[in-house]
Amino acid sequence: MNESFNDALIECVKACGGSKAVGVALWPAKGVEAAQRQLLACLNPDRNEKLGPDEVLHVMRLARARGCHVAMGHLAAVLGYAEPVPVDPLDEKAELQRKFIEATRELQAMAARIGELGAA
């Protein structure tokens, strides 16, 4: 486990291609160099700049897409949760489709019952 969450985020940034790639992904309007400097400042514990919650999530999503789960693992370990297991997007899609079909059947049954009550 990394010593700090910041260390875990740095590892995520490295897995995503480095500070230039991640910086511009976070702040595309800043340009590559300025975004890189901003990200490096945010990851430097001696600086006042810090990533906001949405920016942290963005870095974690980018890392997850690259197969890097160290930040999520660090959070789980520090907070006393079991090691997280990433969900395969194909499995998630299949589960959502199953729930959609089930919900559609329930709605059809409710509509039929409403029709029966209206006819009475």
Q: Any idea how many domains?
A: 2
Average pLDDT metric: 93
**Total number of strands:** 0
Q: How do the helices and strands follow one another from N- to C-terminus?
A: HHHHHH
Shape: elongated
Q: Give the CA-CA distance, first to last residue.
A: 66 Å
Strand content: under 5%
Total helices: the number is 6
State the major sheet: none
The unreliable regions are: none
- Radius of gyration over all CA atoms, rounded: 22 Å
Which structural category do the helix and sheet elements fall into?
mainly alpha
Secondary structure: elements and pairs:
Blueprint: H1 5-15, H2 19-26, H3 32-43, H4 53-65, H5 70-79, H6 89-119
Helix pairs in contact: 1-4, 1-5, 2-3
Short structural description:
By secondary structure, this protein is mainly alpha-helical. 71% of the residues lie in helices and 0% in strands.
Characterization of the model:
This protein is an all-alpha fold and 120 residues long. It folds into 2 domains: 75 residues; 34 residues. The protein contains 6 helices and no strands. The radius of gyration is 22 Å and the shape is elongated. The chain starts with a helix and ends with a helix. The mean pLDDT is 93.
